[in-house]
Amino acid sequence: MASSEVVRFAQLQSVLDVSFLAELTDLKLNVLKLSEEPVEVVGYFSPNRYESVPARLTLDVSSLRPAACSRLDCHAAPGRLLLYNTIEGFRGADKPALMRQVAAEIWADICSGAAEAEPWRLCRFLLLLHGDLKHYKFNYWFAFPALKPPSPFTTPEAPPARLGDALPPAAVEAVTEACRLWRYPPATEAAAAAAAAATAAAEAGPAAPAGQGEDQEDVAAAPSSSTAAPNPVIAATPAEVLARTPAPFWLLASPHADFSADVTAHPLSDWAALAAEAEAGAGAGAGAEEPPAEEQPPAQPQGPGGSQRRRHVLVAMSDASNLPDCPAWQLRNVLLLAAVRWRVPELRVLCLRENSRGGGRLDARRSLLLRAALPAFPSSTTTTAASSSSSTPPPHPCPPDAVGWEPDAAGALRPRFLDLGPHLRPEAQAEQAV
Amino acid sequence: QTVETVTPPLTKSQFEEKRVLTPDEFVAAGDYLVHACPTWSWEGGDPKKRRTYFPANKQFLVTRNVPCLKRATELEGYNPNSEFAVGGGEEGEEGWVATHSDPAAAGSGAAGKEDVPSIEAAGGAGGSGGAGGNKDDDIPDITDLELNEADDEAAAPSGRPYLRAEEPADNIMRTRTYDLYITYDQYYQVPRFWLVGHDESRKPLLPQQVMEDVSEEHARKTITVDPHPHLAGLSAASIHPCRHADVMKKLVDNLVEAGREFKVEQYLVLFLKFIASVVPTIQYDYTMSVGNE
Question: What is the ipTM of this complex?
Answer without folding.
Answer: 0.76
